[in-house]
Amino acid sequence: MVSCRAKRAKMAVEAAEAEQLKAVAMEKVRELQDELQKVTDKLVKKTEEMERKYDLKKVPIYDRRSLVINSIPDFWLTAFMKHPTLGTLLTQEDQQIFRYLDSLYVEDLQYPQKGYCITFNFKINPYFENETLNKTVDYTDEDLETTCTTIRWKRGMTKMMTEFLSILFRIMFLNRTKSNF
């Protein structure tokens, strides 16, 4: 008959061996996870390289498309008005301003940044001096930051900005952080 002390000792040894096996297995899992992460990192890098390569191939097509778009009166205003969300937010004043929008470009920020920059090119207009307005949206791990061109309003337009422009126009052209939203 095996004594209780011997049984406990045997169980303690088995438990220690099981813990050791578990520790070895967990270390192997960590090593394999590190190996997977290296492969994933290579994939991300190669994907970004491919995206940049093909983005460059798109530029001449976008340029040709812009020429066609510029031949269509009020193209951008019409596009905004037909958008299911934007169309409901634009005020009459916004619509008047967007009649002067000549072109719009979206460019992805370059690695390591994540986000995009929208460039709005305007014809000479009675509202502001800027010919170009930019909105940059930068996603960080913890936050979202936007920066915008400061609008240089023409004389008498400040009242219009504060009283008549929609929330959409203000959101598009005001600097914000995640905490402001």
Tell me about this structure.
- The protein has 181 residues and is an alpha+beta fold.
- The protein is 54% helix and 18% strand.
- The chain has a five-stranded antiparallel beta sheet.
- The longest helix has 67 residues.
- The protein starts with a helix and ends with a strand.
| Gross morphology | elongated
* Helical coverage, percent range: 40-55%
Residue ranges: pLDDT <50 for 5 or more in a row? 177-181
Average pLDDT confidence is: 84
Give, in spatial order, the strands making up the sheet with the most strands.
1-2-3-4-5
Rounded radius of gyration (Å): 29 Å
Number of strands: 5
What structural category characterises the helix and strand content? Answer: alpha+beta
Q: Total number of helical segments?
A: 6
What's a quick, concise take on this entry?
This protein is of the alpha+beta class and 181 residues long. It has helices spanning 4-70, 75-82, 86-89, 92-98, 158-163, 167-172, and strands at 101-108, 114-122, 132-139, 144-148, 176-177.
Q: Secondary-structure blueprint of this entry?
A:
Blueprint: H1 4-70, H2 75-82, H3 86-89, H4 92-98, E1 101-108, E2 114-122, E3 132-139, E4 144-148, H5 158-163, H6 167-172, E5 176-177
Features:
181 residues; alpha+beta; 5-stranded antiparallel beta sheet; 5 strands; 18% strand; disordered C terminus
